[in-house]
Design brief:
single chain, alpha/beta, 7-stranded mixed beta sheet, 6-stranded parallel beta sheet, 8 helices, 17 strands, globular
Length: 299
């Protein structure tokens, strides 16, 4: 059986558990595509997975290949696949019903319904930064909060991965986004389309129609007192909505159009080669990443 290089964990723990190893090539199935990965997105959930904090939600199959975001080139398609062909440049949010076959590797196999064509104006690393974060923002705003033109939307951690997409998508929906971030990011938030930027250390939030919270805890509690409706992406509860992003090639295609039109931009803060995944996790866990981080996998 063919093998590919991958960053894996054999047990939960810190960054020292990450290993670059050979793993079996993933098996193709009828309605799937095999993607030769050129870049993989790095997300906070990857660090949580490494630590074992996703184990209650998903079954894990060790050795676990981390990562849910990929951008690359279609290498092979299953016989029931209609939308893609070998050579297509694509990207996808690749979460499955179990954790094990991730994207910190040279190949991934996913259903064709997860996949969209790569935006023409992005390179692979930039594209790999999009799927999980942008789909989270889109699904929260469009489906959970059902944002309407003219509404005010409070976006916490607005300079981060989900946040910087949420600001721009809210603006595209005709809403008026307000972002929280450290003062050094306030000009960045205004460039993205925020009508106001708030220092999250100050703790006073304005009254708004809706809010997205990727922080939880005290921030969420304060937000519930000022927002007409709130969705959290980290903390379930009875007093607010909760959303865990699902794969959708169709919604990713909507985002592709906005990106190609220049209406949504991708801020890639840093890239690391695949064999430096531990350094990428360290950079992410230090905090204060503006936008996203990606791993470059192959040329």
């Amino acid at each position: 059986m063919s093998v590919v290089r991958a960053v894996v964990i054999h047990e939960f723990g810190g960054r020292d558990k990450l290993r670059l190893e050979d793993v079996s090539e993933p098996k193709l199935f009828p309605d799937a595509v095999r993607i030769r990965i050129r870049a993989a997105g790095v997300n906070p959930v990857d660090c949580k997975t490494r630590e074992g904090r996703q184990e209650p939600r998903f079954p894990h199959v060790f050795p676990v290949v981390l990562g849910w975001d990929a951008a690359g080139v279609v290498e092979e398609v299953g016989p029931a696949t209609r939308w893609f062909k070998p050579g297509d440049e694509v990207y996808a949010y690749c979460r499955k019903h179990f954790v094990g076959e991730g994207t910190y590797t040279e190949q991934v196999v996913v259903p064709d319904g997860f996949v969209a064509r790569l935006p023409r104006n992005l390179n692979f690393a930039e594209a790999a930064a999009v799927p999980l974060a942008a789909l989270t923002a889109y699904q929260c705003l469009v489906e959970q909060l059902q944002i309407k033109p003219g509404e005010t939307v409070l976006v916490h951690a607005a300079a981060g991965g989900v946040g910087h997409f949420a600001v721009q998508i809210a603006r595209e929906l005709g809403a008026k986004p307000i972002g929280t971030a450290s003062p050094r990011n306030h000009d960045f938030l205004r460039e993205l389309g925020c009508i106001d930027a708030i220092d999250y250390h100050e703790g006073d939030f304005p009254g708004v129609d809706a809010a997205i919270d990727p922080i939880g805890g005290e921030t969420l509690e304060k937000t519930l007192s000022v927002a007409g409706r709130t969705v959290s992406i980290v903390q379930p509860g009875d007093t607010h909505g909760y959303h865990f992003v699902r794969p959708s090639g169709a919604e990713l295609s909507v985002l592709t159009g906005w990106i190609e039109d220049g209406r949504v931009r991708v801020h890639l803060d840093d890239t690391f080669p695949l064999d430096e995944a531990a350094a990428a996790h360290e950079r992410l866990e230090e905090g204060h990443v503006r936008g996203k981080i990606a791993l470059t996998v192959s040329e």
